[in-house]
Amino acid sequence: MSRYEQFHEFRSRLNCRILGSDEARGNGVDGKPNVGATLVTKRFFTLDGQAYQDGALPRKTKELMGLVASMVLRCDDCVAYHIDQCLEIGVSDEELFEVFDVALIVGGSIVIPHLRRGVDFLDSARVARAKGRTPTCPAGGE
Q1: Which class does domain 1-11+56-133 fall in?
Q2: Sign of the C-alpha dihedral, residues 15, 100, 111, 64?
Q3: pLDDT tens digit string along 3-32?
Q4: What span, in angstroms and rounded, lies between the C-alpha atoms of 72 and 110?
Q5: What is the pTM of this model?
């Protein structure tokens, strides 16, 4: 399974565990239903999704900003998420590499390992998408 596929499998499974119905969350080792997200968590996930919608700034700009912030904050899952969202809306590799440049300037050399993993994810995503594999996650948010 590619990194891209692992990312989507993990994200989908855990979003269902956190945000899903009682049935989707399953039962714990004690046989009782697993506890899910509180109202606060559900609202945060919704707010996160809404923040990236078109507004005064287009979604593309917001996703690219989110990618820079994610790289500087060194959140590999967030980097993967934003790369995936950028691919979904048609951002080119050239645009992504310019965004990587901005992240390096803002964050410094500590960003380099996250840049490497981001490029690895990008390559994996491009291969998976070329094969028609574009998994969707049932619940939103980073």
Answers
A1: mainly alpha
A2: negative
A3: 999 999 999 989 999 998 888 888 889 988
A4: 8
A5: 0.87
